[in-house]
Design a protein that fits this description.
The complex is a heterodimer.
Chain A (H helix, E strand, L loop, with lengths): L1 H15 L1 H38 L1 E6 L5 H12 L5 E7 L1 H11 L4 H5 L9 E6 L5 H8 L5 E6 H44 L1 H9 L4 H38 L1 H5 L8 H30 L3
Antiparallel strand pairs in A: 1-3, 1-4, 2-3
Helix pairs in contact in A: 1-9, 2-7, 2-9, 2-11, 7-9, 7-11, 9-11
Chain B lengths: L1 H19 L12 H9 L3 E8 L9 E8 L4 E5 L6 H8 L7 E6 L2 E2 L8 H6 L1 E5 L10 H10 L5 H14 L15 H13 L5 E5 L7 H16 L3 E5 L3 H7 L2 E6 L2 E6 L6
Parallel strand pairs in B: 3-8, 3-9, 6-7, 7-8
Antiparallel strand pairs in B: 1-2, 1-4, 4-5, 9-10
The chains are: A alpha+beta, B alpha/beta.
The complex binds adenosine-5'-triphosphate and magnesium ion.
Chain lengths: ~290, ~270
């Protein structure tokens, strides 16, 4: 009976002040969507970094006039470099062009604009430890026949810093929205406490426990938080359907960034719900400490 | 006239109560030793050198007040407006804390009472006010039931006890009226029913007749008197001279926060 009483009080409270409740729920939802998106990006970046580190190759581009002997010498040196090198392979100009054509097969105009012999031949080196990239670069940069040492690592780290920036912006906006949501929750609780001040004063007079007086308000806030979390989660699901699997599909299908998995998104739901309930409940409680004194 | 009034209410009131009290509805003392002790040997209410100074006010609302109220007593607190009567009552409810001095109610030192224990204190105190403080959207029965619901009484208990207490205060047949459908006197009866339904040790009344005409006031006083005769201590703040003179009970007179008279079977002044 008491549970029913307390629950219906909370629902009535939400309904009594619908506009405010809607504002509170939407703000909470936006904040949580962004928080969830930021979280997903964060997890993604960590995973991607680990995967890519193992795959990244360092490329030693050869001068166009490098002769066969220089090439053989370089190959020997690399193959015997057991400190740094795990594996070496050679890519001729022709192979480079083939790979280039394959990579950009969707942009034939671009491929046409590039001469078959414009791309340099290279040694592609897999490192024992990807972090030793600069050691290898320093060691071989001035070797005979080498024009340039380059690593996918550079491209990858640029990509990462871009995603990092997106992630950080997302978190920052999530925090701002979160603050707005907290203020709205606090305000809603104040309004609710004011509109129920008669009941509250009688409850206190006849000796209702503090929990009993405050619980309907806290439930009201938590319920709004929970609805916000549900909407936020829905936002993430829509984002997955329309952005990750939709508009942004080309970026993800390049294979460099693993696609954000459904399992991750599903897992985000309960996490958001927990955060929403905890934070709105705590906000409700502390607001009431000011407005519903014993 | 006043004495007759009290006497006539005595017989009828007591008989009514004796029949009314069912075993599980009787006041049951807390088994804890302090409480049991307080019931036998300590005053229900004591104030020792209590002063209360509100922030931003020049003079204290209560100034070095020491009084004790025995179990079962009926005490009037009288005095001009601003003399500190309501402040006294707020201190007993622990709505305010004294600036200095010690307040005990039912053996509890309110100065050291932890805030989570305040609800327990208030369950042993009933309180009525000049403005009734009923919920306008609830009937008389619902108003009384609300007070029981929020302290966790079970529905069967509520269903049994509410009609009993409403008929005790003389409101049979008006259980389903809203406050707007009741006279002032009847509204105050609902408030008294709500205050008394838990069988409090003490009933505090802050100008309970302040909004009522003389005849209705006397009826309310009869009711309070009957409640007092069940052993409930009654503390009533008032400046209704007529009532005080008729009742001939203990009178504590306050003036600018000081006790200037404490008289057994007193009159208004
Ligand atoms: N919350 C408050 N803040 C500041 N001063 C207060 C407060 N409440 C009461 N006072 C002051 O304390 C003094 C005593 O007030 P109190 O309400 O106890 O008087 P009272 O005897 O009940 O008066 P009345 O008969 O008019 O109800 C008054 O001077 C009043 O102005
Ligand atoms: Mg007063």
């Amino acid at each position: 009976m008491r549970a029913k009483f307390v629950l219906s009080e909370a629902l009535t409270g939400l309904w009594r002040n619908v506009t405010m409740s809607v504002a509170m729920i939407l703000t909470t939802a936006i904040s949580l969507t962004l928080l969830g998106a930021g979280g997903l990006l964060y997890v993604q970046i960590q995973e991607t970094k680990d995967v890519l580190r193992g795959k990244v190759e360092v490329m030693l581009f050869l001068n166009d006039d490098a002769n066969e002997q220089q090439r053989q010498t370089l190959k020997q040196r690399l193959e015997n470099d057991h400190q740094l090198v795990r594996d070496v392979s050679f890519e001729s100009k022709e192979q480079a062009y083939e790979r280039f054509k394959e990579l950009f097969r969707n942009s034939p105009d671009f491929v046409h604009g590039v001469q078959p012999d414009a791309l340099p031949a290279s040694f592609r080196v897999k490192l024992l430890d990807p972090k030793d990239y600069s050691d290898l670069a320093n060691k071989y940069r001035s070797a005979d026949g080498v024009s340039r040492v380059s690593s996918q690592q550079e491209v990858v780290s640029q990509l990462f810093s871009m995603i990092d920036a997106v992630k950080n912006t997302t978190f920052a906006v999530a925090v701002l929205q979160g603050i707005a949501a907290l203020l709205l929750i606090g305000n809603t609780i104040q309004v609710a406490a004011y509109s129920r001040r008669r009941e509250v004063s009688i409850m206190k007079l006849v000796g209702a426990s503090n929990w009993y007086v405050r619980l309907p308000f806290i439930l009201e806030a938590s319920m709004a938080g929970l609805i916000g979390a549900a909407i936020g989660w829905l936002g993430l699901i829509l984002g997955k359907v329309f952005l990750v699997d939709g508009a942004l599909k080309p970026i993800f299908s390049s294979g460099l960034i693993p696609i954000i998995q459904w399992s991750d998104i599903l897992l985000t739901g309960p996490i958001l719900a927990f955060i929403a309930i905890a934070i709105s409940g705590i906000t409700g409680w502390s607001t009431l400490r000011f407005y519903v004194k014993v | 006239m006043g004495a007759r009034c009290a006497k006539s209410s005595l017989g009828a009131g007591c008989a009514g109560f004796a029949g009314f009290r069912s075993p599980d509805f009787r006041f049951q003392p807390d088994p804890s030793p302090t409480r049991a002790l307080s019931l036998e040997s300590i005053d229900v209410i004591t104030l020792e050198s209590v002063s209360k100074r509100y922030p931003k006010s020049r003079r204290p609302a209560l100034d070095d007040v020491s009084v004790g109220v025995d179990k079962g007593e009926f005490v009037f607190f009288i005095g001009p407006s601003g003399s500190g009567k309501s402040t006294f009552i707020r201190l007993l409810l622990r709505e305010e804390i004294p600036t200095s001095g010690k307040v005990t109610v039912a053996g509890r030192d309110l100065g050291t009472l932890r805030s989570w224990r305040i609800p327990q204190l208030r369950r042993s105190i009933g309180c009525v006010f000049q403005d009734f403080r009923l919920l306008p959207n609830k009937t008389s029965a619902e108003n009384v039931a609300f007070a029981l619901e929020v302290i966790g009484k079970t529905r069967p208990v509520i269903r049994r006890v509410v009609p009993e207490v409403l008929s005790l205060v003389g409101l049979e047949g008006k259980e389903n009226r809203y406050p707007s459908e009741l006279s002032g006197g009847e509204q105050q009866r609902v408030a008294i029913a709500r205050a008394f339904v838990n069988r409090p040790l003490v009933l505090l009344a802050d100008e309970p007749t302040g909004n009522l005409d003389p005849d209705t006031s006397i009826e309310i006083m009869r009711l309070l008197d009957r409640i007092n005769r069940t052993g409930t201590t009654v503390v009533m703040a008032t400046h209704d001279a007529n009532i005080v003179n008729q009742m001939r009970r203990r009178v504590v007179e306050l003036d600018r926060g000081r006790v200037i008279r404490d008289q057994h079977r007193g009159v208004y002044g």
